[in-house]
Amino acid sequence: MTDNTTASLNGKVALVTGGARGLGLEIASQLAARGAYVVIGAREKAKAEAVVSNLHALGLEASAIKLDVTSDEDRQQAYAAIDKAHGKLDILINNAAVLLDSPNGGTPAPRQPSRALPSVLRETFEANFFAPIFLTQLLLPLIERAEAGRIVNVSSIRGSLTHLSDPTSPVYPIRALAYDTSKAALNAFTILIAEELRSTPIKINAIHPGWLRTDMGGAEANMGVEEGARATINYATLDETGPTGGFFFLDERLPW
Ligand SMILES: NC(=O)c1ccc[n+]([C@@H]2O[C@H](COP(=O)([O-])OP(=O)(O)OC[C@H]3O[C@@H](n4cnc5c(N)ncnc54)[C@H](OP(=O)(O)O)[C@@H]3O)[C@@H](O)[C@H]2O)c1
């Protein structure tokens, strides 16, 4: 992987959705430790404020916003708050997501695709697909005002149609219709918007962070959030030679 992990992020403003726990918390902490001003978005503002207090205690720069990514009102308020305080956004991490087919990390999903619940499909697509699109669309003017905007869509290898359809893939047995298709759709959004923005300095990539020990990934996972976040941050801090419109796990390009 190209090593962008040491350059200072002083002067950069980053928004991390779902930034108060799990992978999002670690991404936010590492960005702040590198010198970025990090806006922590969380459904419950108090949770984001607690993270901000901890970062301030370390002498790092951060602020909290209430951001349920599925709420149009919250998204508008996030735009207004970042515009007022900073006038630009250098880094957007679309991290927030739900896994409702198989809560508590239990996989495969208990219901087969033929019996998947409409509510699970709709709620999953609201959070994992529509929300990152609408948030990206809304914040794009602020990202265009940054010198070299970077957007990372935190996806999953389970959104790879190649892996989903390959019985030899290690993720083949882990099947959940709503989650897997929401990440496949997010990947398609990544391809299409990256193409639209190709002539601009903005880069947008989808990443699989790894199987992580979080509430979603469960205790059996083989990677910690520290490693998962480092990979994400690398794609959030690509220099101008870095890729756009790709799907990656660490240094590896994943098949769609
Ligand atoms: N863990 C893994 O093994 C793994 C593997 C591949 C990809 N991923 C991806 O990595 C990302 C982070 O996952 P994680 O493991 O950290 O999951 P997690 O522990 O379940 O945390 C999910 C985060 O998303 C937030 N969230 C959910 N719905 C939201 C909404 N409507 N508005 C705002 N925030 C919302 C949660 O906030 P609350 O505190 O408000 O609930 C929480 O911060 C996700 O995109 C996930 O799909 C994870």
List keywords for this structure.
about 260 residues, alpha/beta, Rossmann fold, about 15% strand, globular, binds NADP nicotinamide-adenine-dinucleotide phosphate
How many structural domains are formed by the residues?
1
Q: Separation of termini?
A: 19 Å
Question: Unreliable segments (pLDDT under 50, ≥5 consecutive)?
Answer: none
CATH H-level homologous superfamily name: NAD(P)-binding Rossmann-like Domain
Structural account:
- The chain is of the alpha/beta class.
- It has a single domain (13-253), classed as NAD(P)-binding Rossmann-like Domain (Rossmann fold, 3-Layer(aba) Sandwich), CATH 3.40.50.
- 40% of the residues lie in helices and 13% in strands.
- The protein has seven helices and eight strands; from the N terminus they run βαβαβαβαβααβαββ.
- Strands 3-2-1-4-5-6-7-8 form an eight-stranded mixed beta sheet, with helices on both faces.
- Helix 2 links the parallel strand 2 and strand 3.
- The structure holds NADP nicotinamide-adenine-dinucleotide phosphate (NAP).
- NADP nicotinamide-adenine-dinucleotide phosphate is lined by residues 17-18, 20-24, 42-44, 47, 67-70, 95-98, 127, 154, 156, 208-209, 211-212, 214-217, 221.
